[in-house]
Amino acid sequence: MRKTVASLAVGLIMVGALSSVASALPAMGPPKAMVGQDQWSIGLGYSYSQMDLEGSGKSREDPGSGVWAPWQSSKHDIKDLTSNIVLGQLGYGVAENLDVFAYLGVSDAQDEMKETLSDGIPGDKYKGLDCGFGFAWGLGARATFLRDGDVTWGGLIQAIWENPGDGDVTLSAPGADPSSLPGDVDLELREIQIAAGPTLQLESFCVYGGPFLHFVEGQIDASVSARDSIAGPTDPPNRVELSEDIQEESVFGVYAGLQGEASENTSWYAEYRMTGDAWGIGVGAVRRFK
To answer: What residues have CB less than 8 Å from 6, skipping those under 6 apart?
Structure first.
């Protein structure tokens, strides 16, 4: 028991350190060890999620003069960032009560961003943000703390790095043509989930869930450029650049799911996750082998 808790604590420290270098609300699965000592598992999971984020950083503009204005501080509300993420999983049972695993897959992102101004006047809005599928990967660990009849108590931690492909965005300024400033956007997300709770074994399936912590960090960079409709072909274009750090609005959440056996060594799961400003659903399957 002490060895299991200590190993999970080391995992928490390692993942926390990694997250500072390099995230959508991916599925987590049951909060317990499942692979078995010295055994392996492979799996595949899909998640759909939406979450609200906050962005703060800097922006600058060139209204067609050919000269950039100085950088200014900026803040944006990112509402309902929608993401699809598909992850393959490779797991290994370090001990009977401890698994470690790695993820590899792809994720995308769509959203709108609205500028937050201190005087309450409507600000610029980045609309139609659409980033295609890009590389995603992660690390994690699961541990069983206690078994009491049909109930197993445990916890898990996982960190996912998501880099959706470069996308398109349209800058809509107050009183301006919404299609006048198309541009490009680059988005990176880093996400950590820490969960704990019970897994109740029933006749043909189990029910699991509990509270979890959800941390998101990332960066968004946007660049838009277009000539005014009355500008000549040699006139400088209107340009806007934005670079902001983003983070979650809510840390605490709860989740619940079902897990069943498709065969002796293959299981499936389906779950729902939510925080105060995010929610997600996920399904997947895992196969164990020696």
So the answer is: none
Name 186's bridge partners. 221
Q: In the prediction, which pLDDT does 5 show?
A: 35
- The structure tokens 């101004």 sit at 117
At 61, list the tokens. Answer: 């503009």
Kindly state the tokens that stand for 86: 């598909």
Average pLDDT in the 231-255 region? 83
Query: What would the DSSP string read from start to end of 217-245?
Result: EEEEEEEEEE--TT--TTSPPEEEEEEEE
Residue of 191, 213, 96 lying closest to 139 (CA atoms) = 191
Task: List CB contacts of 168: < 8 A, sequence separation 6 or more.
Answer: 128, 129, 130, 182, 183, 184, 185
In the chain the first and final C-alpha atoms are separated, in Å, by 24
Note the CATH number of domain 2-51+79-162+189-214+249-289. Answer: 2.40.160.20
Enumerate the domain spans of the chain.
Answer: 2-51+79-162+189-214+249-289
246: Cα separation from own chain's centroid? 12
% of the chain with per-residue pLDDT over 70: 79
Looking at residue 213, its pLDDT comes to: 95
Average pLDDT across the chain, whole number: 81
